[in-house]
Amino acid sequence: MPPYKYATLAVHAGQHPDPLTGAVNVPVYLSSTFELTGIGADRGWDYSRAGNPTRDRLETALTALEGGASGHAFASGMAAISALVAMLRAGDHVVCSRDVYAGTVRLFDRIVSGYGIEIEYVDTSNLACVEAAIKPNTKLVHIETPSNPLMVLTDIAGVARIAHARGVEVSVDNTFMSPVLQSPIELGADIVMHSTTKYLNGHSDGLGGALIGTTPEHKERFLLVQKAAGAVMSPFECFLVLRGIRTLPLRIQQHEENGRAVAHFLSTHPKVSKLAYPGLKTHPQYDLALCQQKGFGSMMSFELKSRDEAERFLKAIKIFLNAESLGGVESLASHSGTTTHGSVSEEVRRSMGINEGRIRLSVGIEDKDDLIADLDQALAAV
Ligand SMILES: Cc1ncc(COP(=O)(O)O)c(C=O)c1O
Asked: Is 101 one of the catalytic residues?
């Protein structure tokens, strides 16, 4: 495609009309297998685990949005992270942000480390820690920025500089920002990962994940993992994500506007403490957010005094829903200690700074005045 601007790419990359019928939407190819044209000859597809025309379209769109060389769609974000580490070998070492999504920690600690792969969690917001953690057998630095739920940023370009000098690749979980607000590949990352379940789909009606690579080796490796391990995204889910992508820039604009307004409201509320939102000038990494991100997004978290207060708040909200996940059109609130970080021990949670009263918000695209009024009445009930 020519170098179109972002909103045009979102509508058109991978989404040209169907050559057979002219349908302006990508058809959902619900076919597990494809007729061959001869022995070892096909029309581009032979079996849907290896490749499917609807999935191809989504993978083209994701590649364009992240500015990569190839995109690969998986059954969930976790399946994408599994694929990311599937080609590592016993004896390899991975440096990972300490503050990652707890599901990533569960996968690494309870499954991946059983294969003899060593995972080391470090504070990647401190580049000296990243530098010190890289060893001769380090193969990957995996970072999540901003982190969940404390919204701590990692300097992607800084990490890439350090890792590349030692011959190590960098992958970035870009789920919280979406490709609209952060371009890790432009900043030097080698691989971008998404839970498409979140902003890319945007409507909380499907699970999915993606990896976007930058080299022919990534393409070969991720195609092999798709075909060999098989946790691929279904054609229907691919369609849903393709449809979501068409409105992604518009949705993000509204998420962003609402996020800023809600954060501003919460920042002055007497019952709220330790509000974490990179768009506040009081955020310790506000300057990094300004230069690394194209906006501040709509994820934030804050503390109430206790678990009881958190419970009262979650019972009182009316528009915000008490639910895990993020990035959908509807606003969600969740108790971090028992949802995203429920699998982490209380001691570890406390050491991470996630206390019993910590609430995470995913601010949706409803009217911002209604959202603020909802939070106001719920905080009054605390
Ligand atoms: C930052 C991040 N990465 C990965 C995942 C996992 O994605 P999925 O739930 O699609 O498997 C999540 C899920 O919440 C997430 O928030």
From this structure: yes
